[in-house]
Amino acid sequence: MRGLPPAAVSLALALTLCASPVGASTLTIKVPYHSSVFEERGERNLGYALFTDERLVADVQLDVYRLPQQRSSSAHYEELMKLSADAWHERLAWVLVRSDNGVREQVELPAPRVVRNRMRDRGPNAPLPMNCDASTECRTFEATIDFGPLPAGSYVLSATIAEGVASEFAFDVRTGQEPRWRDVYLENKAIHAKTYDEYRTLTLERIRLAPEKVSLVWDLIDRSLQHGTLEKTRSYVAMVRSTVERRGQASGAKKIDTGRSIEFLRKFDEELGDYFAHRTEWSMSRDVKEFKYMIRSRRTGEVLREIRSDER
């Protein structure tokens, strides 16, 4: 689940909901998630979800500190400073609440498995530069907790380590079959595909669901240039051409001038036969910024040919 794709807001953002009550010490939960923009009642909304074939993994961080000018910040300070570096996470009280159709019920969590754990003393005077990332003296406990997979539903995960030192995170779990989540699910699977055939199958399904999304076909062409066959690559180029021609036949504002695109596709297709005949000696790659393809010598890296397009 880690390493998310760009369409999923880069494979690396997290939703953080942190409660900092009476004391200054704070507990924060971060859970990696997938995002999807969808329309509901005429409004665009952003949804967050995990999938049922993924594991609920939470990064939890406890920062223990007090501020001299704020007397209340000493609440629980001595207690939390005595926590063991190895076992502090055992003090966390976890609660998972499921809320479907307005009905809230607490769900039993499986025994958490600690994937990562460490403690750092941070502050402007910390001996290690990496620990000088806090403006006040602070002891930080960090852990990654694996709770395993969950069934589909809407949830709130919360943790408490002392009175008023708590955090919670609201999220959905989806199967990946839901229309609004299907492409996000397939994209994530394609990014982590272990073989070209697996990637191709997933991407062709994405193309079937969104046939006008030409960028998906170009991504498939790029992979096919390295691992596919000449015949399959040409069939993907034909997909692009078919979409471009449909756009050229559209009416009104949707109609576009497709002449240069068709010419580029013709030149690109013509080069494929020669490229595949020399694929052990040549490589072919796309410059996304300028939208051109370059054929290079695998031995020297020299650019042997360029296929350019004036249209992006």
At a glance:
With 312 residues, this protein is α+β, with helices and mostly antiparallel strands. The protein has six helices and 14 strands.
List the defining traits of the structure above.
single chain; 312 residues; 2 domains; six-stranded mixed β-sheet; five-stranded antiparallel β-sheet; 6 helices; 14 strands; 34% strand; disordered N terminus
Mean pLDDT level: 87
Q: Supply Rg.
A: 26 Å
- From the N-terminal CA to the C-terminal CA, the straight-line distance is 32 Å
Helical element count? 6
Q: How many distinct beta strands? A: 14
Segments where pLDDT lies below 50 for 5+ residues?
A: 1-22
Strand sequence of the main sheet, in spatial order? 3-4-11-10-6-7
Which range best describes the helical content: under 10%, 10-25%, 25-40%, 40-55%, 55-70% or over 70%? 25-40%
Order of helices and strands: EEEEEHEEEEEEHHHHHEEE
| Major β-sheet annotation | 6 strands, mixed
Shape: elongated
β-strand percent reads 25-35%
Structure class:
alpha+beta
- Into how many domains do the coordinates divide? 2
Describe this structure in words.
This protein is an alpha+beta fold and 312 residues long. The chain folds into 2 domains: 6-174, no CATH class; 206-308, no CATH class. 27% of the residues lie in helices and 34% in strands. It is built from 6 helices and 14 strands. It has helices at 77-81, 179-191, 196-209, 214-227, 230-249, 259-277, and strands at 14-16, 26-32, 34-40, 43-51, 56-64, 93-100, 103-107, 113-122, 138-148, 153-162, 165-174, 282-287, 292-297, 303-308. It has a 6-stranded mixed β-sheet, with helices on one face. The protein has a 5-stranded antiparallel β-sheet with strand order 1-2-5-9-8. A 3-stranded antiparallel β-sheet has the order 12-13-14. A hairpin with a 4-residue loop joins strand 12 and strand 13 (292-297). Helix 2 (179-191) runs antiparallel to helix 3, helix 4 runs antiparallel to helix 5 (230-249) and helix 5 (230-249) runs antiparallel to helix 6. It is elongated. The protein starts with 13 loop residues before the first strand and ends with a strand. Mean pLDDT is 87; it is low at 1-22.
